[in-house]
Amino acid sequence: MAELIVKPEPTPDADGTLLHITPESAGWTYVGFRVVRLDVGHTFGQTTGGSEVCLVLLSGRADVRTRRRKWTGIGQRMSVFERTPAYSVYVPNDDEYEVTALTAVELAVCEAPGLGNHEARLIAPEQVGVETRGYGNIERRIHNILPEQEPADSLLVVEVFTPNGHWSSYPPHKHDRDALPNESLLEETYYFRVQPEQGFAVQRVYTDDRTLDETLIVKDGEAVMVPKGYHPVSAPPGYDCYYLNVMAGPHRLWKFHNDPDHAWIMTTQRT
Prior knowledge:
Layout: E1 5-6, E2 17-21, H1 23-26, E3 32-38, E4 43-47, E5 51-59, E6 62-66, E7 70-74, E8 88-91, E9 96-101, E10 105-113, E11 121-123, E12 129-133, E13 140-146, E14 156-162, E15 167-168, E16 173-174, E17 176-179, E18 183-185, E19 187-195, E20 200-206, E21 213-219, E22 223-226, E23 233-234, E24 240-248, E25 257-258
Antiparallel strand pairs: 1-22, 2-3, 3-10, 4-9, 5-8, 5-10, 6-7, 6-9, 8-11, 12-13, 13-14, 14-24, 15-23, 16-25, 17-18, 19-22, 19-24, 20-21, 20-23
EC number: 5.3.1.30
Protein name: 5-deoxy-glucuronate isomerase
Keywords: Isomerase
């Protein structure tokens, strides 16, 4: 199995890529993920081939075009920790896109198999579902960028903000069996930002039989691959944690199974 933490390059490569996960590098089938940083006036573009793509403007403003559509001056937050929903663009397979930075831009490129069922579209902040999930020190803020209720072939994309001292992806849950209606098989990447940036998050990835049992110290700008197993996250006191989740599998449904040792947590009295 590949190492679960993927570290960014010290400096972007010629096209701005800092971090790149492919199905081949991950040793799985569905999810691809890339982080690109662009200076003002620089561009990043690709053809989508057999993949659908969700371009998430993590920070900055940009023009984005596909073969048939163009959006100018999109983006509003300069940091993910502003906690406002992102501007995103959905691009189907057999299309192309180009992103031109109007300010410094951090861009996430989320990929999964496409079937040609949808048109390119802008996902504006007001179209992003915002919710608070959990309670007490497992409370966190969720931005549903591309949930299963919105059109796509494979991709599920969500942002999570975990306040310092809190846990998220908690109670520990998994989605590694194609066993609908109870559980869906979804590969998943986590892309982390931490504030202040010298901090870290903690993520555990483990299976019931403990053939996979890793406790990971994740730094700002790193990604974690979750091929299977439970995968809770902790934000240490003093350090707020952001992550962008990308999921995909044979069915575009998020049906998870809580670790039975810890599922009781959700049945206790909320205060």
